[in-house]
Amino acid sequence: MKHKNILVIGEAGYIGSVVVEELTKKGYNAIVYDNLSKGHKEAVSCTFVKGDISDKRLLDKTMEKYNIDAVMHFGSLIVIPDSMKNPKE
Ligand SMILES: NC(=O)c1ccc[n+]([C@@H]2O[C@H](COP(=O)([O-])OP(=O)(O)OC[C@H]3O[C@@H](n4cnc5c(N)ncnc54)[C@H](O)[C@@H]3O)[C@@H](O)[C@H]2O)c1
Known about the structure:
The chain is built from three helices and four strands. It is an alpha/beta fold.
């Protein structure tokens, strides 16, 4: 099996870090993309790119550089009261 390169957005968080653990066990190459606004760098155990999902240029560059085959997206702000106070964010 060719080892696929998976871009995991928001991996420094709770769900993403578990997903990357499972991907790695199955032989996939995980490349992490996270702005670390909520996550923790210590949770990242593979290739890491610090970036925001709104940064299209950096996303394009990352996709090309790591030859990405698929994207799993967990980058998010999950606190509901914050979304009521600041819906634009
Ligand atoms: N935690 C749960 O039990 C649970 C259950 C069901 C669904 N979900 C969903 O899974 C997703 C992830 O949840 P979580 O609990 O892992 O959240 P989390 O806060 O632990 O992780 C979110 C990650 O996204 C990153 N992030 C936020 N905004 C970003 C941006 N603009 N660009 C790049 N990275 C950004 C944060 O730095 C953080 O590392 C959410 O969509 C959530 O609704 C979570």
